[in-house]
């Protein structure tokens, strides 16, 4: 099993969700996040005074999928979240040792 | 009025009865009755329902400039932990100055003065609103004295409220209340008397230096703006200023507030005609044109300098233009109003974004940058652009119409307003600082004035 964590633009959440559903992925968790990558935020002007806003609002999305579904999910996220501009986000993939469904103790891929 | 007329009639009738025979007195009563009826008719015809309606609406419009206008404008510009405290400062003025005005503020501003002080401050004839009834008074021939009184009250409210922008986010509520009560007595009332009061030094009807100030360029904006600067310098910067970012917490609220100010300003300036007249129309048009031109001016300057025209810039420019046209509103043509607005808008932009940063004072919400500098410039531009034909009552030309002396009078008016504001404010601040202390503790300032001064929060999103 693999966990795919993606940091994306808030405006792309709907499109990414739809793409994941279409790819056949059922479970999804999202978190409202703030952060920046290499480009470091933007500047705002209030009456001539400049304010650097370096922690921008982002969405962090987590899905755990079976190994054979991982690449499909990654491609779905990339396609839906890409604008081509700075700040589109990143995807991190990691191995998951175990998954347990709380309701009935099911373990492994069947719990996903 | 009817009661007093009947009373006078009975009294005179009584004395007539004692002095003459019964038949003669009957004739005399009839004659008196006729004279009284004629008098009542004369007063009734002098009163204009149209004028009174317009002036009552204008008074309400000017109050709308304070709360909600100014309260929202300033409230949005502070950080969210200070919104209620900031709005309360304006609201407190609505309540406190009203009581003060009724007791003696109006008298000190508008009653005739005594002896050598007459050109500088009013007397006590109208204390407790004595003699301020529903008959027309000396200031406006066609509206009740009380209408004039309550209209002027709204100016007396918003003027000290404007100052609160300079010391936002750091003054104790108690100190603010005492400071602004003393300020209303020592700075506002004398200045209003000098410019508008009977026998005032700067009055255009017989004053020594007739200074054109249609709706309060010197009385309202210069006094409040300059006092704001003095207060900002005296009280010091906010904790963390300018290193820590302190952007407005809601430009949306400020936007609504500024637009309410724009609408309310029609009462402020066009109402200053004191009648539903052609002059009111002329002032209305000048006011609107100047606000629009100033918004364009500020936005253009900002667009060129920062690369983007901001919403806060647009509304700030409009307010600057409204300030700039205030002294001129009833004396200039629509085209002159466009110029005054444009010049004031660009000028105030540079005062706020450049001059403030060069000198490093923390005029938090730019009370001086907009009202002090805009009011000063507007008063001088009035001396340049005034045309006698616009206001036949005052009948004074400005510099461009060949009356060079008027520019000097405008400078004198502005200089007096600066001096009285600086000296008066410094004295009051010193006294209040010694008595109560001006600032909240650093800890309270960090926590925010909503909680520490009022025990409430403007926003509590956690309550379901």
Automatic annotation (TrEMBL), chain A:
PROSITE patterns membership: PII_GLNB_CTER (PS00638), PII_GLNB_DOM (PS51343)
InterPro entries tied to this protein: N-reg_PII, N-reg_PII-like_a/b, N-reg_PII/ATP_PRibTrfase_C, N-reg_PII_CS
Superkingdom classification of source: Bacteria
Annotated family: Belongs to the P(II) protein family.
Protein name per Swiss-Prot or TrEMBL: P-II family nitrogen regulator
Species per Swiss-Prot/TrEMBL record: Granulicella cerasi
């Amino acid at each position: 099993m693999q966990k795919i964590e993606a940091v994306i633009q808030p405006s792309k959440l709907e499109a990414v969700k739809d793409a994941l559903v279409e790819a056949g992925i059922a479970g999804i968790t999202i978190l409202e996040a703030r952060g920046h990558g290499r480009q470091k935020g933007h500047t705002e002007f209030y009456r001539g005074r400049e304010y650097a806003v370096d922690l921008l609002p982002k969405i962090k999305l987590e899905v755990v999928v079976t190994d054979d579904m991982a690449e499909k999910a990654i491609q779905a996220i990339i396609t839906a979240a890409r604008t081509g501009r700075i700040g589109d986000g990143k995807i991190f993939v990691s191995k998951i040792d175990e998954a347990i469904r709380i309701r009935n103790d099911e373990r492994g891929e069947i719990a996903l | 009025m009817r009661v007093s007329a009947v009373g006078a009639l009975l009294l005179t009738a009584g004395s007539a009865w004692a002095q003459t025979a019964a038949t003669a007195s009957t004739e005399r009563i009839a004659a008196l009755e006729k004279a009284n009826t004629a008098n009542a008719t004369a007063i009734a015809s002098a009163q204009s329902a149209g004028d009174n309606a317009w002036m009552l609406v204008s008074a309400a419009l000017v109050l709308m400039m304070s709360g909600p206008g100014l309260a929202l404008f300033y409230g949005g510009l502070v950080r969210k932990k200070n919104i209620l405290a900031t709005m309360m400062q304006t609201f407190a003025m609505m309540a406190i100055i009203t009581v003060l005005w009724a007791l003696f503020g109006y008298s000190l501003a508008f009653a005739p003065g005594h002896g050598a002080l007459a050109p500088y401050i009013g007397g006590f004839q109208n204390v407790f609103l004595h003699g301020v009834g529903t008959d027309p008074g000396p200031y406006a021939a066609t509206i009740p004295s009380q209408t004039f009184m309550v209209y002027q009250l709204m100016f007396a409210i918003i003027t000290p409220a404007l100052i609160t922008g300079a010391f936002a986010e750091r003054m104790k509520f108690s100190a603010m209340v005492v400071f602004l009560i003393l300020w209303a007595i020592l700075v506002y009332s004398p200045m209003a008397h000098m410019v508008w009061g009977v026998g005032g030094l700067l009055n255009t009807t017989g004053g020594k230096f007739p200074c054109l100030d249609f709706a309060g360029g010197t009385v309202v904006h210069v006094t409040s703006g300059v006092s704001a600067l003095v207060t900002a310098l005296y009280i010091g910067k906010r904790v963390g200023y300018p290193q820590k970012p302190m952007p407005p917490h809601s430009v949306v609220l400020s936007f609504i507030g500024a637009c309410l100010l724009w609408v309310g300003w029609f009462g402020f300036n066009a109402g200053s005609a004191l009648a539903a007249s052609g002059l009111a129309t002329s002032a209305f048009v000048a006011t609107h044109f100047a606000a629009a031109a100033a918004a364009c001016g500020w936005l253009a300057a900002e667009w060129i300098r920062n690369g983007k025209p901001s919403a806060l810039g647009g509304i700030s420019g409009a307010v600057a233009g409204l300030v700039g046209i205030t002294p001129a509103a009833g004396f200039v043509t629509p085209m002159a109003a466009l110029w005054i607005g444009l010049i004031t808008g660009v000028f105030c932009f540079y005062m706020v974004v450049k001059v403030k940063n060069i000198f490093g004072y923390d005029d938090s919400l730019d009370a001086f940058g907009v009202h002090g500098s805009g009011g000063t410039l507007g008063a001088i531009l009035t001396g340049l652009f005034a045309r006698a034909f616009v206001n036949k009552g005052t009948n004074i030309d400005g510099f461009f119409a060949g009356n060079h002396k008027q520019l000097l009078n405008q400078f004198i008016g502005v200089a007096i307003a600066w001096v009285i504001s600086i000296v008066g404010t410094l004295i009051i601040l010193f006294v209040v600082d010694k008595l109560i202390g001006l600032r909240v503790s650093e800890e309270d300032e960090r926590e925010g004035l909503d909680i520490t001064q009022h025990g409430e929060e403007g926003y509590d999103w956690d309550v379901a």
